[in-house]
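Sequence of Non-homologous end joining protein Ku (Neorhizobium lilium).
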Amino acid sequence: MAPRANWKGYLKVGELSCQVALYTAASTSDRVSFHIVNRETGHRVHRQMVDADTGHEVEAEDIVKGYEVSSGQYVFLEPDEIKAAVPESDKTLELDTFIPCNGVDTTYIDRPYYLAPVDKPSADVFALIRKGLQEKSVAALARTVLFRRLRTVLIRPTEDGLIASTLNYDYEVRPAKEIFADIKDFEIEGEMLDLARHIIDTKRGKFDPTKFDDRYETALAELIRAKIEGRKIKRKPAPEPKKVSNLMEALRESIGGASPPPGTKPAAKKTAPKKAASEKKPVSRKTAAPQKKAG
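Predicted 3D structure, token representation.
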């Protein structure tokens, strides 16, 4: 079954344009999902909209969006009023700014989508736009109405097509200083820095999403299988954290059996303390038999 497009419109650069469709790139449909069930009856439980003060159920036609202007006082917004205020969608992704592919702070990236041509006549123009972005190693910024909101979209080329990622607005991203303001600066140099660099160098690799397993989902699936089969699952003991007295010791422990970087002193091997002479275990000696005198 072919995937269903989330959005259809036009991709445009100058006078070039082609029909495109937007498809969800990341989905949670394969995750383990649960229903809320009444333990006594085994029947599913449905949520109801209830008045917070009266406790009475509220019918769907009586529910309206409200903006709180003061405590308990709301301005009601009707669906047709909201629709009239939202910008009309022209169904066009017009590429008007080109930036380096790594020119966007990843904090601003919201959700990824696949962007593809909808038919064969659009494929040639689409391929030309993709190839142009790829040859210049650039991404493009565009704006359009998606899912009832005016959104900024980052469009990046891949070998197969285009990736379109919606971007968060500046007001939606919390300033980093709010989180990092209390982190103190301190100098790290010498052997400590050499060890840290060495650990990074020995663990270099490439991003391969197939290597990362969702242990939470795996554990849930196994728990469900065990419940169905009437088995009990043994709870795995939590790993005990290693106690490290200082940062340098932690770095040395991190290296493990690997060779330390040149110029650093190898970690000293811990040896058992020598026993004092008085504590030495006496050597067992057999008592010699008395010799007879010649005579």
